Amino acid sequence: MNKLEEIIVKLLGWTYGQKHSFVAFKALLYKLACGKIPFRRIAITIFALIQLFLSACFRTPQIPCGEELDLSGYVPVFTDEFVGNELNTDVWNHRCEGTRRFGFNADSQVTVKNGTCVITGEYLKQGKYGAGWYTGAIALKKLYARGYFEIRCKCNRDYGFWSAFWLQASGDPYDHVRSDGGRQAVEVDIMESYNKTSKSRLMMNTIDSTIHCNGVDDNKEKIDSEKIGTFYINDIFDTYNTYGLMWNEDEYIFYINGKETGRSSFGKGVCVNPEEVIVSLEIPEQLPEEITGNLNYKTQMVVDYVKIYQLAE
Residue 46 class from Cβ within 10 Å (0-12 exposed, 13-18 middle, 19+ buried)? Predict the structure, then answer.
């Protein structure tokens, strides 16, 4: 099977929910020829293939158009709709307090109001760790393995800081032995919104989904990564959108607003261990001058809820 066939098989795999095999690909072609596949699915396939071509040739973002999320057999095991006036520290930790790349993470940047959790990025003259650029991150105290993980949020505006919802093994998931090709420890970036630069209007209102680990091959220094894709949503700043991940025994399946965007078992297979569930407004290694030149600058990620579902016992 050549590279193009592999790409098409993978694409058709998530479009139809079939295994990524050349046999499945040929079977789908036969069904298409015999008219055994509904028109809607044919349209989805054609649209997805066009998107794949544009993405490969011109690096254009894709529009979520996969199968609908199905939570049959799943029950909610965690829900936080951020009721009240402060973060529930019985279930959440403030994560990575202190120095963080170009600035600092501090609990002062995470507030709960009007049924939302707000993480603010801004410059503080008298911050917890001194003068500088501040942001925040929270992580659930309980670790989770497998299930469906979903956030409903508005991403922050502008280039520089970026909103993120992700899973990561506690400790160092990038150690060659500890990660074991993602089987023992992995980072799954369900959603990161760092493409919002005014220099690239095409990438406005897009998010990325990516998997990171180590130990896929013998190169101990290299972080192994697979980008699921860059996806366009109509409005990520002023409208709430949902971003989700189904983590089962075989693969990771990504969703935006209940539509599948891709699936993968990158590395040596899906992780078998529980992981941290993290919500953060990330700060880069260097903020652009348009931000550092304005010490009154402020940006916010607004979270409506975080939910986790697992298979009923």
Answer: exposed
